[in-house]
Amino acid sequence: MNEETVAMLDHVKAVLPASGAHGFDHTLRVVSLCETLGAREGADMAVLIPAAIFHDIARPIEEEAGVPHEEEGARMAAAYLESVGYPADRIAGIVHAVRAHRYSAGIDPETLEARVLSDADNLDAMGAVGIARTFMQSGEQGRGIGDAIDHVHEKLLNLKDRMHTESAREIAGERHAFLLAFLAALEDEMHLRPLSGR
Questions:
Q1: Number of domain units in the chain
Q2: Radius of gyration for the alpha carbons in the chain, expressed in angstroms and rounded
Q3: Separation between Cα atoms, residue 16 and residue 55, nearest integer Å
Q4: pLDDT digits (tens, 9 = 90+) for 63-93
Q5: pLDDT for the residue numbered 134
């Protein structure tokens, strides 16, 4: 990891909480997934890795002010990268990838790097980590297990079919199978039986 990347990580780390459903630990996992997927898919890592580092930088601002984090994050990424003299021909691609990464934003990822970032972010919402993050977020928002189960049904089970790259589809298949097995076990354990049947 070069000094430029370390400086970007330090900049983002200073803004995000260390952990949480969208903490700095999530950013590090998305960066790692982007390194793997990007290498397999032939992405421009000088665009992809900064986009992965900055993709959630504005989450705290969204939580405080309601500003969409993908829009504010793209602006913050551009401002930082311009201030350190990052190659101008790469910044537009980074900004697009940050804007297009969000599941619910409805922005079509038009570049390979944007597609890889979207896939990496979605993969981190699947499998064991995705389950952990879902229940963590439910707790952070003062909600219960039932709400977390609803989120799994409404979002996580749809992610497998939203992957853009072949590399991500392979990983998503495994994580989706784990989600289904976990959900079946959890719903079985949570099934409430009438008192007379106990």
A1: 1
A2: 18
A3: 11
A4: 889 999 999 999 999 999 999 999 999 999 9
A5: 95
* CATH code of the domain containing 58: 1.10.3210.50
3-class SS of residue 20: coil
Closest CA to 8 of 55, 70, 53: 53
Instruction: Please determine, for residue 104, whether its predicted confidence score (pLDDT) is greater than 80.
Output: no
> Is 146 part of a structural domain of the chain?
yes
Q: Nearest Cα to 50, choosing from 106, 88, 18? A: 88
For residue 163, give its domain range.
3-190
- In 3D space, the residue among 20, 45, 19, 22 whose CA is nearest the CA of residue 33 turns out to be 45
| DSSP single-letter state for residue 194 | P
Q: Which two tokens stand for residue 128?
A: 């064991």
Given this model, what pLDDT does residue 194 score?
52
Between CA 56 and CA 72 the distance in angstroms is: 9
